[in-house]
UniProtKB/TrEMBL annotation:
<dbReference type="InterPro" id="IPR056179">
    <property type="entry name" value="DHQS_C"/>
</dbReference>
<keyword id="KW-0547">Nucleotide-binding</keyword>
<keyword id="KW-0520">NAD</keyword>
<dbReference type="GO" id="GO:0005737">
    <property type="term" value="C:cytoplasm"/>
</dbReference>
<dbReference type="InterPro" id="IPR030960">
    <property type="entry name" value="DHQS/DOIS_N"/>
</dbReference>
<protein>
    <recommendedName>
        <fullName>3-dehydroquinate synthase</fullName>
        <ecNumber>4.2.3.4</ecNumber>
    </recommendedName>
</protein>
<dbReference type="InterPro" id="IPR016037">
    <property type="entry name" value="DHQ_synth_AroB"/>
</dbReference>
<dbReference type="GO" id="GO:0009423">
    <property type="term" value="P:chorismate biosynthetic process"/>
</dbReference>
<dbReference type="GO" id="GO:0046872">
    <property type="term" value="F:metal ion binding"/>
</dbReference>
<dbReference type="GO" id="GO:0000166">
    <property type="term" value="F:nucleotide binding"/>
</dbReference>
<dbReference type="GO" id="GO:0003856">
    <property type="term" value="F:3-dehydroquinate synthase activity"/>
</dbReference>
<dbReference type="InterPro" id="IPR050071">
    <property type="entry name" value="Dehydroquinate_synthase"/>
</dbReference>
<comment type="function">
    <text>Catalyzes the conversion of 3-deoxy-D-arabino-heptulosonate 7-phosphate (DAHP) to dehydroquinate (DHQ).</text>
</comment>
<keyword id="KW-0456">Lyase</keyword>
<dbReference type="InterPro" id="IPR030963">
    <property type="entry name" value="DHQ_synth_fam"/>
</dbReference>
<keyword id="KW-0479">Metal-binding</keyword>
<dbReference type="Pfam" id="PF24621">
    <property type="entry name" value="DHQS_C"/>
</dbReference>
């Protein structure tokens, strides 16, 4: 796919429960207004090594005013999204005299915004934070909805809170800093939005040969996620549909994160596997048609390399399912599809069918 980006478009801000998602030029305008009015004692900017090198300077150039900034850098990658990194950031905040009137601006991908949001939500029982997602994945997914947190070892997002930022700033020019593989990772979450909510959007995305209309596509995905989150902020019911592909996908991602014999999978690559697996289970349990199942499989396999699983891999992955956040009363709860655009939540799946889904993926 061609990842050449056209000039940013002006788009209306999307209002969520207690904050707004602002885009491109409007994002910087609203940020400057906010900083001018908020009277923060100190402004901290959390980055990782990549966003420090490629995103921090252009971001800072758009901030107008004389403020007391401190930049905190963490190591990049999911492997560093843990409580040890949080402790380091908390300690730096303390050493630099952060108080409850400080703000933390998280400039980075999902690791930075998830971890930074959690750090801010817990430091001195909570300081303000602003998310500036710089990857496609974090723009369409990680920075919307107030989920913050870190991994526990290789287990995804086991520790965290739901807490809303002051604002989210989506500036699509940051995407020019990304490798194609990172863009593809984010594209998987966009495809998911079509599968759970909008068949026509799914058809539009799978037919793309380029992402030159990326602003409108990001806007559509953020709108879909925001509509779901507004109905169910704390994921008691309908918000669970956003986890389609993630029950098995997160287990695959966690296994590859801790297995020395496998290369790491990016989040979107693992979720792509999960969406095929859970598509097959949907075909067997909840009425997804054979044609739609084959459509899902063909779309993901045309966009993502096929992953090889040994019987031992599959056994280990399935053991990780017991740590999924949607579980309750000892049951593993899946989000499945009745058809594309119509999901069903809290479906129980047998061990035999889980194993069978990997055989379908393999063949």
């Amino acid at each position: 796919m061609d990842y050449t980006l056209k000039k940013n478009k002006v788009m209306t801000s999307i209002t969520s429960s207690s904050y707004a998602v602002h885009f491109n030029e409007t994002a910087y305008l609203r940020l400057n207004e906010h900083l001018s009015n908020a009277n923060y004692s100190k402004i901290f900017i959390l980055v990782d090594e990549n966003t420090h090198n490629f995103c921090l300077a252009p971001f800072m150039a758009e901030i107008h005013g004389d403020y007391d900034f401190e930049v905190i850098e963490i190591e990049p990658g999911e492997i560093n999204k843990n409580i040890e990194t949080c402790t380091q950031v908390w300690e730096v905040l303390s050493e630099l005299d952060a108080d409850r009137k400080s703000v933390l601006i998280n400039v980075g991908g999902g690791v930075v915004t998830d971890l930074g949001g959690f750090v801010a939500s817990t430091f001195k029982r909570g300081i303000n934070f602003i998310n500036v997602p710089t990857t496609l994945l974090s723009m369409v997914d990680a920075s919307v909805g107030g989920k913050t947190g870190v991994d526990l070892g290789a287990l995804k997002n086991q520790v965290g809170v739901i807490n809303q930022p002051e604002m989210v700033l989506v500036v699509s020019s940051f995407l020019q800093t990304l490798e194609e593989r990172q863009m593809q990772s984010g594209f998987a979450e966009m495809l998911k939005h079509g599968l759970i909510k909008d068949h026509s959007y799914w058809n539009e995305l799978k037919a793309l040969s380029s992402l030159d209309a990326i602003d409108q596509l990001i806007y559509h995905s953020v709108t879909i996620k925001n509509e779901v989150v507004l109905q169910d902020p704390t994921e008691q019911n309908i918000r669970k549909i956003l986890n389609y592909g993630h029950t098995l996908g997160h287990a695959v991602e966690s296994y590859f994160l801790e297995s020395p014999k496998h290369e790491l999978l990016l989040h979107g690559e693992a979720i792509a596997v999960g969406m095929i697996l859970e598509g097959y289970i949907s075909y067997k349990l909840t009425g997804l048609s054979k044609d739609e199942l084959e459509d899902i499989k063909a779309t993901f396999l045309s966009n993502y390399p096929k992953v090889s699983f040994s019987p031992e891999d599959i056994e280990a992955i399935l053991k990780l399912l017991k740590f999924d956040k949607k579980n309750s009363h000892g049951n593993i709860n899946f989000v499945l599809l009745n058809k594309i655009g119509k999901p069903e939540i809290d479906v129980k799946v047998s061990q035999e069918l889980l194993v069978e889904s990997f055989a379908y993926y393999k063949n």
